[in-house]
Amino acid sequence: MAFLRRAFLLLFLQVCLLHVSVLAKVELSMNETVDVYIGDMAEILCQYTSTNSDSKPGFLIQWFVAERGGSRSRLYYADANQKLIDSGTDYTDRINVVTDEKGTRLSIQDVRLSDEREFYCHVNGLAAGSGVRKTHLRVFAPPDVPEIESVTTGISVTKDTPSKVASCETRNGFPKPNITWYRDGEPLMNESGRVNIVILSSRMSSDLYSVQSTLEYKVEKEDKDARFSCEVSFFVPDGIRKFESPSVNITVHYPTTMVELWKESPQGLVKEGDTVELRCQGDGNPPPHFIFNKVEEPDVNFESSRDVLILSSVSRKDSGTYQCHPLKGDGVMEVKGEVELKVHYLDTAVVVPKDEELMHKGEDLTATCNALSSRSTSTVWYKDGKVVGRGNTFHLQNATYERSGVYKCEVTVPSLPNLKTNGFVKIIVQGGPELVGSEEVVQLDEVEGRVVNLSCEALGNPLPSISWNITGSQSWHEVDKKTHKHMTHSVVSVKVTSDITAECNVSSDRGSGVKIFKIKAIPRVTTTAPFTPEGSGVIIVVIIVCLLLLAFLGSVIYFLHKKGKIPCGRSGKQEITKEKTTKDEIVVEMKTNTKNEEAVLLKAVNGDKKGPNDQPL
């Protein structure tokens, strides 16, 4: 019955409205659209005024929502007596309506994607007239940050059609977002034969959109360093927002058009015995395999490791021009790289005279040392580790025995310090014995009884021998004899008993020589040494030591006598009395019956202390 009354009342009001509509009208004001984020609260305001100013009518307010099929469902009803939210709709628990003199406001909590539709505001002022307006509610859901993925395989520039470069995907957006591609910050548009953008969109169970875009691009060599990225743009209540993906790089395959060949090691000049590494590099990608050959031997290919050729222990015959060619599927490419390799050398030194050279004392000799080399050389002569000459030629003038020995020449290449060679010659200077010293007769004066040493040295090659002939003394012997290289040395010890003549005879198969020592014996004379202050000082010291010994001996005898160890011949009565003592003090008094009594007081404190006036016994 209540429903019938309400329906009748509504019909009655509409009939009345038709009669008075020509007399009064209600004016409504609403926004065409209201934008809101999904999950937020939407507010739709409906403002109204009446053209009938003579009365203050009561308004009947209703809110409707458009359904998918075109019909409308009421959400709210209010008149002067009651306010009612219709039950059984999707909005029953989510809407709230506030009405005042200026209008009515519909609030929708927890907006969903399904709420994107038109909402109608019906206002009936009875005698004041009626009006209907609508607002379209738009719901927005920002999508996820885009995910970009580039192709992992290389893309060849020789392909005629665009190739897939990367894909970009964004999810959970509403309305459907848009994806734009960029190359180094510049947007890419569809271009026949060069750029093709494929877009695939889908609507998930949550009614949110997922959009995937694939970029197909005809790559060129310049794209090897290019950065590709995608940008997602989408609508929001306050405009348009954008998300940009990270940039990615692609691998571009392109043919080799230029090749370079160089010597990787060793640094600097190459010498014989070095290990040489030649490296070849082209501008193609991926780097091709290379073959190596020599211009002088074009039909011989060297074994190599992809782009490196290693030449072990090179010699001068390895000098020449080396080439490398990149390989391709159907053979060798015409492009090539070249490098000139020069292997430097130094031959073994040749010394003239060779090995060993005999010379006579006083002669001159010229020796040469030469070594063939690809670079300028430097020659130094050594003897016994010391530098004796520089240059290819060595001059030995007025040869002496000391100049005998091994002469070594060392040839080096200044520009290649490790490149060196050497040779040697052994020079032997021959001659008869030669006594050391300018005097052939040596005069000496020595005191009788003295022993003197006589030394004799001789040079020569072959080495001379030394013998002694001594007259005037029967007491002599050889105390030292030694040889060193081209010298003989002998020392004899002689006792002078009279005038002596000593002959040092040197000899070899090339001659002999003699050196004479004449010793005159001087008789020994005994003299009294005069008094000197130094001698008197020694005598005084001896006397003092003797007196001290006597004093010590007397004190010992006296002590033993007092102890009774030694009997005393003197008559008289002796008496010893002991006074009171302490641990630190002992007093002993000695008495006799003689006319002159003597007392001796001995006092020792701690065994090591004396008074300032105490005297030792």
From TrEMBL:
UniProt organism field: Haplochromis burtoni
Keyword match Signal: yes
Record carries keyword Ribosomal protein: no
Subcellular location: Membrane
N-terminal signal peptide: 1-24
Membrane-spanning residues: 537-560
Keywords: Disulfide bond, Glycoprotein, Immunoglobulin domain, Membrane, Repeat, Signal, Transmembrane, Transmembrane helix
Gene3D superfamilies: Immunoglobulins (2.60.40.10)
Domain Ig-like: 24-138, 146-251, 255-324, 347-412, 433-520
Name recorded for this polypeptide: Cell surface glycoprotein MUC18-like
MF (Gene Ontology): laminin receptor activity
Membrane topology label: Single-pass type I membrane protein
CC per GO annotation: plasma membrane
PROSITE patterns listed in its UniProt record: IG_LIKE (PS50835)
